[in-house]
Amino acid sequence: MRIDGTQRKWANASGIILAIAVLGYIPYAYLSRPRGGSWPGLIYGIAGLTFMIFVALLSLRKRFPTWRMGRSQTWMRGHLWLGFIAYPIILLHAGFSLGGSVTTWLMVLFTFVVLSGIAGAAIQHYMPNVMTRAVPYETIYDQIDNVMRQLVEESQRIMEQMTPTIEAMPVAEINDRTIRFNRTMVKPAERVEVKPFKEFYEEKVLPYLQVRGRWVNELANAESSRTMFSQLKKMSPPDVGSLVDDLENICDEKRQLDLQSRLHRILHGWLLFHIPLSWALLALACVHAVIALRY
Question: What whole-number distance in Å separates Cα of residue 135 and Cα of residue 253?
Answer without folding.
Answer: 9
